[in-house]
Amino acid sequence: MTDAGGGTGVPVRRSRLAEYAEMAGQPPKESHPLEVSGSAPALAGPGPVETGRGAEPSDAEVASRRREFTALLAAFRDTAVLVPLRSGGWLTADFGGVRWILAFSDTSALARYASARDEAHQEWTYRTVLGARLLDVAVPAAGVPCGVALDAADGVEHAVLFPPVAGVVPDAFAVDHVRRGGAPR
């Protein structure tokens, strides 16, 4: 695909991701763009978490959100996602003492991220990786507390974080895992 390059008449190679960015200007509407076949839910977050100083959630609400996240985690583990490559490794971001591997459900989600960083014009190289492989292999290989951020540019309604905690990543690499002797990792 080429672009005339500012009216000079000379064709300039244009990243295919730039075209996706033009098409994907808005985040997804009602549901997440990646749906898992069968009875598993779409890969969409359990909804925004209220951070105000309101009443504590009921036990039933906590249990419901845990069930939703467990189903979401299972769907993620069985789904292939796109992971951009940068400087010979995965595209990551460090925040709050945790390294986050940035993964995207499809090229439109990756394009929205590239646009948000004002980098849609660049060529983006990515690899398709199974969610389970990210959590079970890439996270332990990071050497630091590490989790996965899915569709980071899509806001709290659609982006999902899979933090480095027991039940999400291997226990030996979970930040809440207790080592022998009672000291947390």
UniProtKB/TrEMBL annotation:
Region span, Disordered: 1-61
Superkingdom, according to UniProt? Answer: Bacteria
Give the protein's recorded name: SseB protein N-terminal domain-containing protein
Q: Which organism is it from?
A: Streptomyces prasinopilosus
